[in-house]
Amino acid sequence: MPIGNLDVPIIGKNVTIAVLVQTHILFAAFIIGAVLIAATSEYLGMVTKQPRYERFARNLARFTVLLFASGAALAITFVLALVTLFPIFFSYLQNIFFWVFLVEAFMFLGQIIIVYAWYNVWDKLAYRKSLHVVFGFVAGFFGLMAMTMIDAVASFMLTPAQANVNDVARTFLNQTMVPLNMHRFVGNFSYVGFLVAGWGAWRYLRSTSEEDREYYDWMGHFGLLWGFGFLLLQPVVGYGYLKAIRESSPEAFNTIMLGDKAWTFLLLVFWLAVLSIASVAYFLHKLRYAVRPMENLRKLSVGAFALMALFSILNVIPADASIVPQIGLVFGGGEDVQIPLGSMYPWKYIGLIGLTLVGLFVLALYLRATASGFEWGRASRWSQYALMVSAVVVVLTMVTMGYTRETARRVDNEPGYLIYGCITLQQQLTPETCAATGLERGD
Q: Where are the transmembrane segments (predicted)?
Protein backbone atom coordinates (compact mmCIF):
# COMPACT_ATOMS: atom_id res chain seq x y z
CA MET A 1 0.00 0.00 0.00
CA PRO A 2 1.44 3.42 -0.92
CA ILE A 3 2.29 5.62 2.04
CA GLY A 4 -0.54 7.99 2.92
CA ASN A 5 -3.31 6.02 1.18
CA LEU A 6 -4.85 4.58 4.35
CA ASP A 7 -8.48 5.60 4.81
CA VAL A 8 -11.28 5.20 7.37
CA PRO A 9 -14.29 3.12 6.28
CA ILE A 10 -17.66 4.83 5.75
CA ILE A 11 -16.87 8.32 7.09
CA GLY A 12 -13.42 8.79 5.51
CA LYS A 13 -10.25 10.26 6.97
CA ASN A 14 -11.20 13.91 6.44
CA VAL A 15 -14.30 13.57 8.62
CA THR A 16 -12.33 11.57 11.20
CA ILE A 17 -9.73 14.30 11.59
CA ALA A 18 -12.41 17.02 11.63
CA VAL A 19 -14.36 15.33 14.45
CA LEU A 20 -11.24 14.74 16.54
CA VAL A 21 -9.96 18.29 16.07
CA GLN A 22 -13.29 19.97 16.76
CA THR A 23 -13.85 17.91 19.91
CA HIS A 24 -10.33 18.56 21.13
CA ILE A 25 -10.71 22.31 20.57
CA LEU A 26 -13.94 22.37 22.58
CA PHE A 27 -12.09 20.75 25.49
CA ALA A 28 -8.86 22.72 25.15
CA ALA A 29 -10.57 26.12 24.76
CA PHE A 30 -12.66 25.44 27.85
CA ILE A 31 -9.64 24.44 29.93
CA ILE A 32 -7.61 27.52 28.97
CA GLY A 33 -10.48 29.93 29.52
CA ALA A 34 -11.72 28.22 32.70
CA VAL A 35 -8.32 28.29 34.42
CA LEU A 36 -7.95 32.04 33.84
CA ILE A 37 -11.55 32.82 34.84
CA ALA A 38 -11.22 30.67 37.98
CA ALA A 39 -7.95 32.38 38.93
CA THR A 40 -9.58 35.79 38.39
CA SER A 41 -12.58 34.76 40.50
CA GLU A 42 -10.27 33.55 43.28
CA TYR A 43 -8.49 36.89 43.19
CA LEU A 44 -11.81 38.76 43.38
CA GLY A 45 -12.79 36.62 46.36
CA MET A 46 -9.53 37.47 48.08
CA VAL A 47 -10.04 41.20 47.48
CA THR A 48 -13.79 41.50 48.13
CA LYS A 49 -14.03 38.81 50.85
CA GLN A 50 -17.18 37.48 49.19
CA PRO A 51 -17.28 33.66 49.60
CA ARG A 52 -19.23 33.07 46.38
CA TYR A 53 -16.14 33.96 44.30
CA GLU A 54 -14.03 31.42 46.19
CA ARG A 55 -16.72 28.75 45.89
CA PHE A 56 -17.05 29.36 42.17
CA ALA A 57 -13.27 29.35 41.57
CA ARG A 58 -12.74 26.09 43.44
CA ASN A 59 -15.63 24.28 41.76
CA LEU A 60 -14.50 25.44 38.31
CA ALA A 61 -10.91 24.38 39.08
CA ARG A 62 -12.12 20.94 40.18
CA PHE A 63 -14.09 20.48 36.96
CA THR A 64 -11.11 21.63 34.89
CA VAL A 65 -8.84 19.06 36.54
CA LEU A 66 -11.38 16.30 35.82
CA LEU A 67 -11.70 17.47 32.21
CA PHE A 68 -7.96 17.71 31.61
CA ALA A 69 -7.40 13.97 31.21
CA SER A 70 -10.12 13.73 28.54
CA GLY A 71 -8.72 16.72 26.66
CA ALA A 72 -5.21 15.28 26.74
CA ALA A 73 -6.44 11.89 25.50
CA LEU A 74 -8.22 13.57 22.59
CA ALA A 75 -5.07 15.51 21.71
CA ILE A 76 -2.98 12.33 21.62
CA THR A 77 -5.65 10.51 19.58
CA PHE A 78 -5.76 13.38 17.09
CA VAL A 79 -1.98 13.41 16.62
CA LEU A 80 -1.89 9.63 16.14
CA ALA A 81 -4.71 9.85 13.59
CA LEU A 82 -2.94 12.66 11.73
CA VAL A 83 0.34 10.72 11.60
CA THR A 84 -1.46 7.60 10.40
CA LEU A 85 -3.87 9.09 7.88
CA PHE A 86 -1.73 11.98 6.56
CA PRO A 87 1.88 10.85 7.10
CA ILE A 88 3.40 12.78 4.19
CA PHE A 89 1.67 16.00 5.17
CA PHE A 90 2.60 15.55 8.84
CA SER A 91 6.25 14.96 7.97
CA TYR A 92 6.36 18.33 6.18
CA LEU A 93 4.51 20.02 9.02
CA GLN A 94 6.89 18.52 11.58
CA ASN A 95 9.96 19.66 9.65
CA ILE A 96 8.63 23.20 9.28
CA PHE A 97 7.46 23.57 12.89
CA PHE A 98 9.90 21.38 14.81
CA TRP A 99 10.78 24.11 17.33
CA VAL A 100 7.18 25.22 17.64
CA PHE A 101 6.00 21.68 18.41
CA LEU A 102 8.84 21.28 20.92
CA VAL A 103 7.92 24.47 22.76
CA GLU A 104 4.23 23.52 22.68
CA ALA A 105 5.02 20.15 24.26
CA PHE A 106 6.88 21.80 27.15
CA MET A 107 4.11 24.39 27.60
CA PHE A 108 1.55 21.59 27.73
CA LEU A 109 3.65 19.73 30.29
CA GLY A 110 4.00 22.88 32.37
CA GLN A 111 0.26 23.45 32.25
CA ILE A 112 -0.43 19.91 33.48
CA ILE A 113 1.96 20.25 36.42
CA ILE A 114 0.80 23.70 37.53
CA VAL A 115 -2.95 23.04 37.11
CA TYR A 116 -2.83 19.92 39.27
CA ALA A 117 -0.55 21.60 41.82
CA TRP A 118 -2.83 24.66 41.90
CA TYR A 119 -5.88 22.56 42.76
CA ASN A 120 -4.16 20.16 45.17
CA VAL A 121 -2.62 22.86 47.37
CA TRP A 122 -5.82 24.94 47.62
CA ASP A 123 -6.23 24.30 51.36
CA LYS A 124 -2.51 24.24 52.14
CA LEU A 125 -2.08 27.76 50.76
CA ALA A 126 -5.29 29.09 52.33
CA TYR A 127 -3.25 31.60 54.35
CA ARG A 128 -0.99 32.48 51.44
CA LYS A 129 -3.77 33.33 49.04
CA SER A 130 -1.74 35.67 46.87
CA LEU A 131 0.73 32.88 46.09
CA HIS A 132 -2.08 30.48 45.28
CA VAL A 133 -3.69 32.98 42.91
CA VAL A 134 -0.34 33.31 41.14
CA PHE A 135 -0.35 29.53 40.62
CA GLY A 136 -3.66 29.83 38.78
CA PHE A 137 -2.49 32.62 36.50
CA VAL A 138 0.79 30.79 35.76
CA ALA A 139 -1.23 27.71 34.75
CA GLY A 140 -3.32 29.93 32.47
CA PHE A 141 -0.15 31.44 30.99
CA PHE A 142 1.22 28.01 30.08
CA GLY A 143 -2.10 27.16 28.45
CA LEU A 144 -2.08 30.38 26.42
CA MET A 145 1.49 29.74 25.26
CA ALA A 146 0.58 26.22 24.14
CA MET A 147 -2.40 27.66 22.26
CA THR A 148 -0.16 30.28 20.64
CA MET A 149 2.17 27.59 19.29
CA ILE A 150 -0.71 25.65 17.76
CA ASP A 151 -2.19 28.85 16.32
CA ALA A 152 1.07 29.45 14.48
CA VAL A 153 0.65 26.08 12.75
CA ALA A 154 -3.08 26.55 12.03
CA SER A 155 -2.59 30.04 10.63
CA PHE A 156 0.33 28.91 8.42
CA MET A 157 -1.89 26.21 6.92
CA LEU A 158 -4.28 28.88 5.66
CA THR A 159 -1.85 31.73 4.96
CA PRO A 160 1.68 30.34 4.49
CA ALA A 161 4.35 32.99 4.96
CA GLN A 162 5.82 34.46 1.80
CA ALA A 163 9.30 33.31 2.79
CA ASN A 164 11.44 30.19 2.97
CA VAL A 165 9.99 27.62 5.37
CA ASN A 166 13.36 27.53 7.17
CA ASP A 167 12.83 31.14 8.23
CA VAL A 168 11.44 30.31 11.67
CA ALA A 169 10.37 33.86 12.59
CA ARG A 170 8.54 34.56 9.30
CA THR A 171 6.89 31.15 9.33
CA PHE A 172 5.76 31.55 12.92
CA LEU A 173 4.58 35.14 12.49
CA ASN A 174 2.78 34.52 9.21
CA GLN A 175 0.13 36.93 7.94
CA THR A 176 -2.79 35.69 10.10
CA MET A 177 -1.02 34.34 13.17
CA VAL A 178 -1.60 37.40 15.41
CA PRO A 179 -5.28 38.02 14.49
CA LEU A 180 -6.09 34.30 14.81
CA ASN A 181 -4.42 34.16 18.22
CA MET A 182 -6.31 37.24 19.38
CA HIS A 183 -9.54 35.77 18.02
CA ARG A 184 -9.07 32.53 19.95
CA PHE A 185 -7.86 34.32 23.11
CA VAL A 186 -11.03 36.43 23.24
CA GLY A 187 -13.18 33.49 22.16
CA ASN A 188 -11.99 31.24 24.99
CA PHE A 189 -13.29 33.64 27.64
CA SER A 190 -16.60 34.16 25.87
CA TYR A 191 -17.06 30.41 25.30
CA VAL A 192 -16.43 29.50 28.93
CA GLY A 193 -18.52 32.40 30.19
CA PHE A 194 -21.62 31.31 28.28
CA LEU A 195 -21.16 27.68 29.36
CA VAL A 196 -20.82 28.74 33.00
CA ALA A 197 -23.97 30.87 32.67
CA GLY A 198 -25.88 27.95 31.17
CA TRP A 199 -24.73 25.56 33.89
CA GLY A 200 -25.65 28.09 36.58
CA ALA A 201 -29.13 28.41 35.05
CA TRP A 202 -29.58 24.63 34.97
CA ARG A 203 -28.57 24.28 38.62
CA TYR A 204 -30.73 27.27 39.60
CA LEU A 205 -33.85 25.62 38.20
CA ARG A 206 -33.05 22.39 40.05
CA SER A 207 -32.06 23.94 43.38
CA THR A 208 -34.42 23.81 46.36
CA SER A 209 -32.49 25.66 49.07
CA GLU A 210 -32.51 29.45 49.13
CA GLU A 211 -28.72 29.58 49.51
CA ASP A 212 -28.14 27.50 46.37
CA ARG A 213 -30.72 29.46 44.38
CA GLU A 214 -28.97 32.71 45.26
CA TYR A 215 -25.56 31.27 44.39
CA TYR A 216 -26.56 29.79 41.05
CA ASP A 217 -28.51 32.92 40.12
CA TRP A 218 -25.32 34.88 40.75
CA MET A 219 -23.29 32.32 38.76
CA GLY A 220 -25.48 32.81 35.68
CA HIS A 221 -24.98 36.57 35.96
CA PHE A 222 -21.21 36.25 36.49
CA GLY A 223 -20.78 33.83 33.58
CA LEU A 224 -22.78 36.00 31.22
CA LEU A 225 -20.63 39.04 32.02
CA TRP A 226 -17.62 37.08 30.74
CA GLY A 227 -19.50 35.54 27.82
CA PHE A 228 -21.21 38.63 26.46
CA GLY A 229 -18.45 41.05 27.40
CA PHE A 230 -15.82 39.21 25.36
CA LEU A 231 -18.31 38.38 22.60
CA LEU A 232 -18.55 42.10 21.84
CA LEU A 233 -14.85 42.13 20.96
CA GLN A 234 -15.21 39.38 18.37
CA PRO A 235 -16.61 41.47 15.46
CA VAL A 236 -13.61 43.80 15.72
CA VAL A 237 -11.05 41.01 16.07
CA GLY A 238 -12.84 38.89 13.47
CA TYR A 239 -12.76 41.74 10.96
CA GLY A 240 -8.99 41.99 11.36
CA TYR A 241 -8.67 38.24 10.88
CA LEU A 242 -10.84 38.19 7.74
CA LYS A 243 -8.98 41.17 6.33
CA ALA A 244 -5.67 39.34 6.78
CA ILE A 245 -7.08 36.24 5.01
CA ARG A 246 -8.38 38.35 2.12
CA GLU A 247 -4.99 40.00 1.60
CA SER A 248 -2.95 36.79 1.91
CA SER A 249 -5.22 34.07 0.49
CA PRO A 250 -7.89 35.82 -1.61
CA GLU A 251 -9.31 32.63 -3.14
CA ALA A 252 -9.78 31.14 0.33
CA PHE A 253 -11.51 34.34 1.44
CA ASN A 254 -13.81 34.23 -1.60
CA THR A 255 -14.71 30.62 -0.83
CA ILE A 256 -16.17 31.44 2.58
CA MET A 257 -17.47 34.94 1.85
CA LEU A 258 -18.59 34.95 -1.76
CA GLY A 259 -18.58 31.34 -2.97
CA ASP A 260 -20.70 28.27 -2.27
CA LYS A 261 -19.61 28.29 1.39
CA ALA A 262 -20.73 31.87 2.04
CA TRP A 263 -23.58 30.43 4.12
CA THR A 264 -21.05 29.61 6.84
CA PHE A 265 -20.60 33.33 7.54
CA LEU A 266 -24.38 33.82 7.64
CA LEU A 267 -24.63 30.94 10.10
CA LEU A 268 -21.96 32.54 12.27
CA VAL A 269 -23.72 35.89 12.42
CA PHE A 270 -27.00 34.07 13.14
CA TRP A 271 -25.43 32.42 16.19
CA LEU A 272 -23.99 35.81 17.13
CA ALA A 273 -27.48 37.31 16.88
CA VAL A 274 -28.99 34.62 19.12
CA LEU A 275 -26.27 35.09 21.74
CA SER A 276 -26.63 38.88 21.67
CA ILE A 277 -30.42 38.96 21.85
CA ALA A 278 -30.56 36.31 24.61
CA SER A 279 -27.92 38.18 26.64
CA VAL A 280 -29.61 41.57 26.34
CA ALA A 281 -32.99 40.02 27.19
CA TYR A 282 -31.43 38.53 30.33
CA PHE A 283 -29.88 41.86 31.31
CA LEU A 284 -33.20 43.60 30.74
CA HIS A 285 -34.96 41.10 32.98
CA LYS A 286 -32.30 41.31 35.67
CA LEU A 287 -32.63 45.09 35.96
CA ARG A 288 -36.07 44.51 37.53
CA TYR A 289 -34.33 43.01 40.54
CA ALA A 290 -31.69 45.67 41.11
CA VAL A 291 -31.38 46.57 44.79
CA ARG A 292 -31.74 50.21 43.86
CA PRO A 293 -34.60 50.74 41.35
CA MET A 294 -33.31 52.02 38.00
CA GLU A 295 -36.32 52.54 35.79
CA ASN A 296 -34.52 54.92 33.44
CA LEU A 297 -31.78 52.39 32.82
CA ARG A 298 -34.38 49.76 32.09
CA LYS A 299 -36.16 51.99 29.56
CA LEU A 300 -32.87 52.67 27.80
CA SER A 301 -32.20 48.92 27.75
CA VAL A 302 -35.59 48.28 26.12
CA GLY A 303 -34.66 50.66 23.29
CA ALA A 304 -31.26 49.04 22.98
CA PHE A 305 -32.89 45.61 22.80
CA ALA A 306 -34.99 46.75 19.83
CA LEU A 307 -31.88 48.09 18.08
CA MET A 308 -30.04 44.85 18.83
CA ALA A 309 -32.80 42.86 17.12
CA LEU A 310 -32.77 45.23 14.12
CA PHE A 311 -28.99 44.98 13.60
CA SER A 312 -29.15 41.20 14.05
CA ILE A 313 -31.73 40.89 11.26
CA LEU A 314 -29.54 43.04 9.02
CA ASN A 315 -26.60 40.70 9.59
CA VAL A 316 -28.40 37.49 8.62
CA ILE A 317 -29.88 38.69 5.31
CA PRO A 318 -28.18 36.68 2.50
CA ALA A 319 -26.49 38.43 -0.43
CA ASP A 320 -28.44 36.40 -3.02
CA ALA A 321 -31.10 33.72 -3.33
CA SER A 322 -28.53 30.89 -3.37
CA ILE A 323 -28.41 30.36 0.39
CA VAL A 324 -27.07 26.80 0.87
CA PRO A 325 -26.62 25.29 -2.61
CA GLN A 326 -25.09 22.09 -1.20
CA ILE A 327 -28.50 21.02 0.16
CA GLY A 328 -30.61 22.65 -2.55
CA LEU A 329 -31.67 25.68 -0.48
CA VAL A 330 -31.86 27.96 -3.52
CA PHE A 331 -34.71 30.29 -4.44
CA GLY A 332 -35.68 31.76 -7.81
CA GLY A 333 -32.64 32.47 -9.94
CA GLY A 334 -30.17 31.57 -7.21
CA GLU A 335 -27.02 33.63 -7.15
CA ASP A 336 -28.32 35.76 -10.04
CA VAL A 337 -30.98 37.20 -7.73
CA GLN A 338 -29.15 39.80 -5.65
CA ILE A 339 -30.59 41.01 -2.33
CA PRO A 340 -29.44 44.63 -1.79
CA LEU A 341 -29.62 44.58 2.04
CA GLY A 342 -27.53 41.41 2.10
CA SER A 343 -24.36 42.90 0.60
CA MET A 344 -21.25 43.00 2.74
CA TYR A 345 -20.68 46.67 2.11
CA PRO A 346 -22.18 48.69 3.64
CA TRP A 347 -24.99 46.70 5.30
CA LYS A 348 -23.06 43.90 7.00
CA TYR A 349 -20.54 46.43 8.30
CA ILE A 350 -23.38 48.57 9.64
CA GLY A 351 -24.99 45.54 11.24
CA LEU A 352 -21.83 44.31 12.97
CA ILE A 353 -20.74 47.78 14.11
CA GLY A 354 -24.24 48.53 15.35
CA LEU A 355 -24.42 45.21 17.20
CA THR A 356 -21.11 45.92 18.93
CA LEU A 357 -21.91 49.52 19.90
CA VAL A 358 -25.40 48.71 21.18
CA GLY A 359 -24.02 45.72 23.08
CA LEU A 360 -21.37 47.88 24.75
CA PHE A 361 -24.04 50.41 25.68
CA VAL A 362 -26.28 47.76 27.28
CA LEU A 363 -23.33 46.19 29.07
CA ALA A 364 -22.33 49.57 30.51
CA LEU A 365 -25.90 50.10 31.78
CA TYR A 366 -25.94 46.65 33.33
CA LEU A 367 -22.58 47.09 35.02
CA ARG A 368 -23.82 50.33 36.53
CA ALA A 369 -26.76 48.45 38.03
CA THR A 370 -24.41 45.66 39.15
CA ALA A 371 -22.49 48.14 41.29
CA SER A 372 -25.53 48.49 43.60
CA GLY A 373 -26.27 44.74 43.51
CA PHE A 374 -29.26 42.54 42.70
CA GLU A 375 -31.75 40.54 44.70
CA TRP A 376 -30.33 37.07 44.02
CA GLY A 377 -32.54 33.99 43.83
CA ARG A 378 -35.53 35.71 42.21
CA ALA A 379 -34.80 35.12 38.52
CA SER A 380 -37.62 33.92 36.28
CA ARG A 381 -37.56 30.58 34.51
CA TRP A 382 -37.49 32.15 31.02
CA SER A 383 -34.36 34.14 31.88
CA GLN A 384 -32.64 30.89 32.86
CA TYR A 385 -33.79 29.27 29.64
CA ALA A 386 -32.15 32.16 27.78
CA LEU A 387 -28.86 31.34 29.51
CA MET A 388 -29.15 27.65 28.68
CA VAL A 389 -29.91 28.43 25.03
CA SER A 390 -26.81 30.64 24.97
CA ALA A 391 -24.69 27.78 26.32
CA VAL A 392 -25.86 25.48 23.51
CA VAL A 393 -25.48 28.14 20.83
CA VAL A 394 -21.94 29.07 21.87
CA VAL A 395 -20.87 25.45 21.27
CA LEU A 396 -22.48 25.59 17.82
CA THR A 397 -20.65 28.87 17.23
CA MET A 398 -17.29 27.29 18.06
CA VAL A 399 -17.97 24.36 15.72
CA THR A 400 -19.13 26.67 12.90
CA MET A 401 -16.07 28.91 13.30
CA GLY A 402 -13.76 25.92 13.10
CA TYR A 403 -15.52 24.54 10.04
CA THR A 404 -15.48 27.94 8.32
CA ARG A 405 -11.74 28.40 8.79
CA GLU A 406 -10.85 24.88 7.69
CA THR A 407 -13.20 24.79 4.71
CA ALA A 408 -11.60 27.98 3.37
CA ARG A 409 -8.57 25.89 2.33
CA ARG A 410 -10.68 23.60 0.19
CA VAL A 411 -11.27 26.34 -2.44
CA ASP A 412 -14.35 24.42 -3.62
CA ASN A 413 -12.08 21.34 -3.92
CA GLU A 414 -10.48 22.64 -7.13
CA PRO A 415 -8.18 21.65 -5.54
CA GLY A 416 -8.57 21.41 -1.76
CA TYR A 417 -5.48 22.12 0.29
CA LEU A 418 -3.97 20.92 3.55
CA ILE A 419 -1.58 23.87 3.37
CA TYR A 420 -3.14 26.55 1.18
CA GLY A 421 -1.54 26.58 -2.25
CA CYS A 422 1.23 24.20 -1.13
CA ILE A 423 -0.01 20.69 -0.28
CA THR A 424 -3.29 19.27 -1.56
CA LEU A 425 -5.73 17.01 0.28
CA GLN A 426 -4.10 14.15 -1.61
CA GLN A 427 -0.76 15.15 0.02
CA GLN A 428 0.74 16.31 -3.27
CA LEU A 429 3.14 19.26 -3.34
CA THR A 430 2.19 22.21 -5.54
CA PRO A 431 5.26 24.49 -5.28
CA GLU A 432 4.21 26.50 -8.35
CA THR A 433 1.22 27.95 -6.41
CA CYS A 434 2.78 28.01 -2.93
CA ALA A 435 3.59 31.38 -1.33
CA ALA A 436 6.26 29.73 0.82
CA THR A 437 9.46 28.37 -0.68
CA GLY A 438 11.70 25.48 0.29
CA LEU A 439 9.01 22.77 0.48
CA GLU A 440 10.26 20.82 -2.53
CA ARG A 441 11.81 17.45 -1.90
CA GLY A 442 15.50 17.75 -1.15
CA ASP A 443 15.32 21.37 0.03
A: 15-39, 60-90, 96-119, 131-150, 185-202, 223-242, 262-284, 305-329, 349-370, 382-403
